Amino acid sequence: MRRKLAAGNWKMNGLKANLSEIEALATAHPAPGSDILLCPPATLIAPMAQAASGTALAIGGQDCHAAASGAHTGDIAAAMLADAGASHVILGHSERRADHDEHNEDVRAKANAALAAGLTCVICVGESEAQRDASNTLDIIGGQLSGSIPDGVTGHSLVVAYEPIWAIGTGRTPTLEQIGEVHDFIRMRLERRFGTGVGRSTRLLYGGSVKPGNAAEIFAVSNVDGALVGGASLKAADFSAIITALEAAPPQG
Ligand code: 13P
Question: Is the residue at 3 inside a domain?
Fold first, then answer.
């Protein structure tokens, strides 16, 4: 059985005053039946890791540079994330692919840097609305998987998040059948490339307008091992309700 994972992506939101959400979350889930990960902006990684120390909450970054160090003003190396207390890093989020022109090969290089620093990579894939309308979803996802995920990953060091771009921050979600189709496809592709050991142990998250009200039905879909939650992860009460729904969902794996 795969252990479930509830991950929150705070994106470019959060000040020190918001660290109280972490304390509320840790108090609400002292011994969770799932893994819980929060990825704040870089400025909050160290204080959030400190606030989460001694709790079950893991902390992650939202991006890293592909190089180990050097003349890259404004960028952050994977080892710096680990040094600040992160155990995970989100890579290839569609907002970074769009805002920073990141392509699959960039994501793969960053993932290699993250693996070298001992971080678990949460690699994001997802189609645009136009791509879905043109029935290209699985082709796009397949290309993103083979281009973005490096060789040498394990079920521990890789998490894949399926985030349809048109579902992010819109309140719209794919049908449960559409989510299941993509997650089954990702599982099949991982098994084919990495073998059944890695393929079956890698957690697959769904992301895009996950809320307390729709979480339970999404978590019942085959091969959905958790969620990557944006807006609803900012408030402990909402994220906590999503975690509770995840823990009540049927086991997967
Ligand atoms: P929302 O949950 O706000 O739609 O964001 C999803 C997301 O992009 C998480 O990485």
Answer: no
